[in-house]
Amino acid sequence: MAGLLKKLQEEMKTAMKSGDKDRLSVIRMLISEIKKVQIDKKKELSDDEIIQVLQRYAKQRKESIKQYREAGREDLALKEELELKVVQEFLPQPLSEEEIEKIVDETISQLKASSIKDMGRVMKAVMEKVKGRADGSLVSSIVKKKLS
Questions:
Q1: pTM of the predicted model, to two decimals?
Q2: Judging by beta carbons within 10 Å of its beta carbon (0-12, 13-18, 19+), is residue 148 exposed, middle or buried?
Q3: Whole-angstrom Cα distance, residue 87 to residue 50?
């Protein structure tokens, strides 16, 4: 069993014992999402695959927060923010913009990229290095800026 799934199950037990119903419900939802993907793929998930599931869940929470705020439903937005906060505890710490820029610079020099035509190659290499720790649109804008 992947370490991250084990950690989630341990946290679920802790939340049960402490009576933290909100946290417990979010962790149960995450475990059920992971199990659903495992059933679909007919295999145990690695920590990297579990992180992808958690990131997808976090992205859905962010979109919901935005939609609820636009609809004037602050109560529901706050509930989603609470869920998002719990999910983020289990995700790797995101890289800062400076760290991403440094990785992009290193990758550009490694690949000897010189123009915007090289953007695809650079993006592929950078996304491999920052796997799960940086937003693709942010990486894309930094790469575009560096290659222009």
A1: 0.73
A2: exposed
A3: 12
**pLDDT one-digit tens code per residue, 103-126:** 988 888 888 888 888 888 888 888
Of the candidates 45, 10, 44, which has an alpha carbon nearest to the alpha carbon of residue 27? 10
Residue environment code for 113-146, b if the CB has 16+ CB neighbours within 10 A, otherwise e? beeeeebeebbebbbeebeebbeeeebeebbeeb
Work out the burial of residue 87: count CB atoms within 10 Å of its CB; fewer than 13 is exposed, 13-18 middle, 19 or more buried.
Answer: buried
Phi first, then psi: what are they for 112, rounded to 5°? 50, 45
- Residues 55, 91: contact at Cβ < 8 Å? yes
The two three-digit tokens of residue 31, written as one number:
């475990």
Say which residue the tokens 């937005």 belong to.
77
Residue type, 133: R
CA–CA dist 148, 135 (Å, integer): 20
Reading the block at residue 131, the tokens are 């796997």
Cα three-residue angle 25-46-42, rounded to 5 degrees: 85
- CA–CA dist 135, 92 (Å, integer): 12
Tokens in use for 101?
């820029």
DSSP assigned state of 91: S
